[in-house]
Amino acid sequence: MNAAPPGRTHPEPDIVDAIRLCADPELAAGFAAAAHRILAELVRGGAPLGWTDPPPAEEVAELVERVLCAARAGDGALRAAYDGRRLVGLGYWLRYARPTHRQHADLEKLAVAPEAHGRGVGRSLTAALVGDAREAGIEVLTLDARADNTRALRLYRSLGFREYGRLPEFVAMGGRRYDKVFYMVDFRGNGQPGQQGQRE
Fold first, then answer.
1. What is the SS3 assignment for 164?
2. pTM of the predicted model, to two decimals?
3. Which are the contacts of 68, defined by CB distance < 8 A and separation ≥ 6?
4. How many whole angstroms separate alpha carbon 52 and alpha carbon 189?
5. If pLDDT is split at 50, 70 and 90, which confidence band does 37 have?
6. pLDDT per position as a tens digit, 139-198
7. Torsion region of 134: left, alpha or beta (phi above 0 gives left; psi -120 to 50 gives alpha)
8. Cβ distance 79 to 130 under 8 Å?
């Protein structure tokens, strides 16, 4: 476990990639269930993760397997945050499926357990995923979010993302409507992949 830096009561999370996760039999065996715990709890609390009701465990297990397969094939990246042996956050990106868009990827989900909020877990996960995308030669990494998720959007902007569009009142949730906003970080900088990301 990492030691807590001066002024912090909690240690830095250990940010694990798909290779390290799969190489640890205990973590790998419990990952889908731990991910389900986090996602279900967040959705139950109203978090904008794409579900209106907590997803069933089987659906999360299928999602995890799909993401891990993509990561093994070089078509995605998964990052998991651990406090000791306890999963406290996860996120992933996947390449676009359309052949003409395969050079780009979408950051599809980022989730941090409620007990770990305010500890920099989301920032560490996002920064690691952005670094993975740059190393994989991704040209543009995109994401979309609910416009009222101001804390997450502020985090994304601080890591180099910028808004490139929005759909007014596109998301329906509990009888309410929210704008859907689209963010991107472009690694191409002057036509060369990675240059802009290196300057940020």
1. strand
2. 0.88
3. 18, 21, 22, 78
4. 38
5. very high
6. 999 999 999 999 999 999 999 999 999 999 999 887 899 999 999 999 997 444 444 433
7. alpha
8. no
> Distances from the Cα of 90 to the Cαs of 5, 33, 81, 139, 183, in angstroms?
22, 13, 6, 23, 19
Only one residue has tokens 């297990």, namely 61
Among 142, 64, 73, residue whose Cα is nearest residue 107: 142
Task: Report angle CA 164, 165, 167 to the nearest 5 degrees.
Answer: 165
**Secondary structure class of 161 (helix, strand, coil):** coil
pLDDT band at 200 (very low <50, low <70, confident <90, very high): very low
Q: Which of 169, 156, 95, 99 is nearest to 122 (CA)?
A: 156
Given strand 140-146, what is the order of strands in its sheet? 14-17, 76-83, 86-95, 105-112, 140-146, 176-186, 162-173
pLDDT in tens, 66-108: 999 999 999 999 999 999 999 999 999 999 999 999 999 999 9
Under 8 Å between Cβ of 161 and 38: no
DSSP annotation string for 9-71? SSPPPEEEEHHHHHHSHHHHHHHHHHHHHHHHHHHHTT--SS-SSPPPHHHHHHHHHHHHHHH
